[in-house]
TrEMBL record:
Protein name, entry field: DUF427 domain-containing protein
Record domain DUF427: where: 24-115
A UniProt-annotated Pfam family: NTP_transf_9
Coiled coil: none
Source taxon at top rank: Bacteria
């Protein structure tokens, strides 16, 4: 297998990771999946900001790891989880970079949720 291309964020593709000062709550229906005041907001190029939530603030009993994986040349290999209470809609709704590249090392031990598969509320 060929080596994976690794890219470094820069002016043409900036990535910033900053602590979100607000509370972030992730729900499916009336079930809280995650609730934190320690989210990291990752802003990559012109994409919408993504909230990365510490694992300790996620109800991991509501998640099930899947075989799905993806690769980002800026962040590394992503592993996925399904959100069980969401049924089929929750399949691969959560991703995590367990060994992120140095440029985004702060997101290690955090997970992110696809907003189209769960409700993500940011409470100021």
């Amino acid at each position: 297998m060929a080596d994976k291309t690794v890219k470094i964020p820069g002016p043409d593709h900036p990535i910033t990771v900053e602590k979100n000062p607000d509370r972030v709550v992730v729900t499916v229906g009336d079930r809280v999946i995650a609730d934190t005041r320690d989210a990291l907001s990752l802003q990559e190029a012109s994409y919408p900001a993504v909230q990365y939530i510490p694992r300790e603030d996620v109800d991991l009993t509501q998640l099930e790891r899947t075989e799905h994986q993806t690769y980002c040349p800026y962040k590394g290999d992503a592993s996925y989880y399904s959100v069980l209470p969401a049924g089929a809609d929750g399949e691969n709704a959560v991703w995590t970079y367990e060994q992120p590249y140095d440029a985004v090392a702060d997101i290690r031990d955090h997970v992110a949720f696809y907003p189209g598969k769960v409700s993500i509320e940011i409470i100021a």
